[in-house]
Amino acid sequence: MLNLSFFPKIFSYAFCFPGIIILVTITLVGGISGLYFVQIGKGLEEVPEISVEANAVLLHRNNIADIRPGAFSQLYNCTVLNLDHNKLTEIRADMWDGLYSLEGFGLSNNLIASLSEGAFSTLPSLTGVNLAENNLQEIDRKQFVGLSFLDTLYLSENPICTIGVGSFSELQSLDVLSLELALVTEITASLFQGLSSLRYLQLYQAEMSKFGEGVFGVMPNLTNLFIYGVNESTILSSDMFHQLSDLNILSFQQHKIIDIQHSAFINLHGLENLYLDWNQLKKSGLKCGLVSTNLKYSIWETMKSHP
Length: 307
What we know:
Leucine-rich repeat, LRR (right-handed beta-alpha superhelix); 2 domains; 13-stranded mixed sheet; 1 helix; 3% helix; disordered N terminus; disordered C terminus
């Protein structure tokens, strides 16, 4: 699995040469090495000519608004492409012709409002894509067809208001999902259909009013669940986490949780960390079946309002 978290290690190296084209062999933490084509912060409006030997292409912090078909057609060995902080407004499959070996893909902090059908279908080796901080409003299953190896997907800080049923059902290998649901009023199990392999889920600053019945039951392998910012009064029901026996970390911070039903956590035998701080719980609401013998850390507060 190629973890996008190594991108910052590339950035720290590349910013030593702002606005300069460079092709150099470097080895990063974790033994990742190769030829890196670097052209950062130079105001580029289109993709430049790139050495066919490049294993990674770093073009972030430019002004690229579109990518002509074939711009990367000779980069058969490229495994990393970073286009963060550009001005792309849409993603089409013909932009990525030739990137058959691409694994890690940075597209955050653009202006992307549209993913075409099969937007990444020409990237059969893709394992991680960062689409955070864009203008995406709709998510549909046709956008992610052909991504059978994708294990990491960041969609946080997008104004998503519509997620089609089974939108992620093509992503059978997905392990990590970070999702902004600021305009979704109800989270239901249908949103996560097909994500039976998912282990890490972050729902960021969601303003939904309630969770649907059995919402997390379609993701029985979850080990880390982080949900932030529900702005309506919430009750954690007794069946909400019933099938999450492998859950290790559970965070419901900065919500308006007023009560936890009896036995809400009773099946969480693997739970080690529980975070319920910045809610509106009273002590009487904490009799919720915390029977995990592995629980190492828990925190909650009885605050009546957020800081």
